[in-house]
Amino acid sequence: MDILIFLTDVVRTLPGVAVVIFYVVVLWGVFDLMTPFNDREELFRKNNLAYLLQRLGLVAGQVIAMLAVIPDFDVDHPWESAGWLILEGLWVAIALITARWFIDWVILRKTKNQELLLKGNLGVGIAEAGAYVGIGLLLGGSLTGTAETAWLSLASTVIFYLLGLLFVAAVFWLYELATPYHLRRNLEEGSVPAGIELAGVFVAACVAVQVGVAGDFESWGSDLVWFFVTALIALLLLGIIWGASLLLERAFWRVTKEQRTLAPTVTVATLRAGMMILAGVVTATVLNLT
Question: What is the 8-class DSSP label of residue 218?
Fold first, then answer.
């Protein structure tokens, strides 16, 4: 590799990196203002790991989402490119802030997440971190591609991101329905395995549906059809691979009946989370080939 070309490429990314760092700081500060308690005391005096995981997941979501647009920075048109990066970063920050409502009131409803986090509930911290990382992936997909006008680009970005969130919610509800134990109740009780398992579900669902929200905008009709087709295929593939992993748990890994039907251990939950994320990656790969 030519060192000069490599260094030139690195320099090209610096303005985008600066914008990302700026929004990480802004997002952290905004969440400090939104909370009715002293965040520094909670994090660094009380050493609340659960709350720290939530905040780190939020920051990771911002960075992951913007990684999709940093390479688009054009050094030949720096002011225009910087303007677009700032707008895209603002959209990501707003989407992540509002995603807090989505997580607390739509997916993990009635679990009183904030209260549980302040009590040091690691399960909730892990689950929310996974949700924000997954949403970051979803936002990154929504920012890719082009459209005929800036307004059309903005509208399609928002609409397909919201559709992606609905898909994530559907996967969660179906997964919870299929499990013989109550994931949210286990989460309320401070179950770390439940948090790990849910984090895997969130990330897997976002990875799988990312294909449906990414790409160039052609028309509302064709793009909506493409999204729902990919969402249906993603749902089927996730279900098939998840079912296969359950068979492997029983026949190959010899997971006990109690761990399968009552409450999984940390190792079993991590295995399931890993298998779900693998299922999401395989699903996205298959859909990218279509």
Answer: -
- Quote the longest CA-to-CA distance of the chain: 62
Cα–Cα dist 212/247, whole Å: 29
pLDDT of residue 289: 79
Residue-averaged pLDDT of the chain? 87
Exposure letters 130-163 (e unless 16+ CB within 10 A, then b): bbbbbbbbbbbbbbebebeeeeebeebbebbbeb
pLDDT score at 281: 92
- Domain coverage including residue 47: 3-289
Pick out the chain residues at pLDDT < 50.
none
Contacts 24+ apart (CB under 8 A), 281-289: 281/207, 282/237, 282/241, 283/207, 283/208, 283/233, 283/234, 283/237, 283/238, 283/241, 284/207, 284/208, 284/210, 284/211, 284/234, 286/233, 286/237, 287/208, 287/211, 287/212, 287/230, 287/233, 287/234, 288/211
pLDDT of residue 1: 52
CA–CA separation, 75 and 50 (whole Å)? 41
Report the helix count and the strand count for the chain, using DSSP H and E.
12, 0
Q: Answer for the pair 87, 163: CB distance below 8 angstroms, yes or no.
A: no
Q: Which pLDDT value is given to residue 60?
A: 95
Task: Give me the number of domains the chain comprises.
Answer: 1
CA angle 102, 29, 119 (to 5 degrees): 60
Per-residue pLDDT at 164:
93
CA distance 259 to 249: 10
Contact 277, 203 (CB under 8 A): yes
